Amino acid sequence: PPHRPLYGRHVLVTAGPTHEPIDPVRYIANRSSGKQGFAIAEAAAAAGARVTLVAGPVVLQTPPGVERFDVETAREMAEAVNEALPADVAVMVAAVADWHVENRAGQKIKKNGHGLPPLELVENPDILAGLGQSPGKPPLLIGFAAETDNVIDYAVDKRQRKGADWIVANDVSGDVMGGRENTVHIVTADGVEDWERMDKERVAVKLVERIADALSR
Ligand code: C5P
Question: Where on this chain does CTP bind (predicted)?
Fold first, then answer.
């Protein structure tokens, strides 16, 4: 039915940041409110999909009809994503931290006047690129790219490098982080679509329409 165009589809969404502990009271993270990913999960559920939302630490309510799994670290997120497969569509919106702290301390690190604590950083798994290469790759794999400059060039490159079908590039040089609105560009094999600045909810609804359209072809 036209009003539930994703009925029978499984949509997997990642959202929010990941937190990579340094010690029990400190962590490394990227800035992310989770709003855009949650809005996409909500719009996909409203379009009739079964939606699995893998969320990093955020303060947002679970949208109606969405099954949510909360995780803290990138490695936990990667595991939750793998457990949620198979999916018809994966929309990877999470701002995953690039590194975790290999020598995380079990107790609070003290400022002791003897210099700075050495943090050994180790690269996290790239969840999007991992899915892009996996035999379980969802038929439609969508990544996000938050950039402050050369937004389109980086997104075109990222689409290729990560094996994604589409990249939604957002220009975060302004007040997009944590804000209500977003300016996005949709990078596909066919080229680039520039969308006007709009609410994150509207971006979500339009993206879900675009997804339903692509799946119906
Ligand atoms: O490389 P960059 O972090 O800019 O790529 C952004 C895209 O890759 C987003 O879709 C993000 O969710 C995904 N990503 C991921 N796992 C990572 C890093 C990024 O899934 N470790």
Answer: 98, 108, 125-128, 144, 158, 162
Give yes or no for residue 74 CB within 6 A of ligand 1.
yes
Question: b/e for 146-159, b at 16 or more Cβ within 10 A?
Answer: bbeeebbebbbebb
Q: Is 128 in the pocket of ligand 1 (CB under 6 A)?
A: yes
Is 98 labelled as part of a ligand binding site? yes
Q: Closest Cα to residue 155, out of 125, 200, 185?
A: 185
pLDDT surpassing 90 at residue 40: yes
pLDDT digits (tens, 9 = 90+) for 61-74: 999 999 999 999 99
Side-chain half-sphere exposure of 186, counting CA atoms within 13 A: 18
Radius of gyration of the chain (CA): 18
CA distance 164 to 154: 13
Helix (DSSP H) and strand (DSSP E) numbers for the chain:
5, 14
Instruction: Decide if 30 is catalytic.
Output: yes
Q: ipTM score of the complex?
A: 0.94
pLDDT digits (tens, 9 = 90+) for 144-185: 998 888 999 999 999 999 999 999 998 888 776 767 888 999
In a 3-state reduction of DSSP, which class is residue 186?
strand
Annotated binding-site residue? 38: no
Check whether 128 is labelled as a binding-site residue. Answer: yes
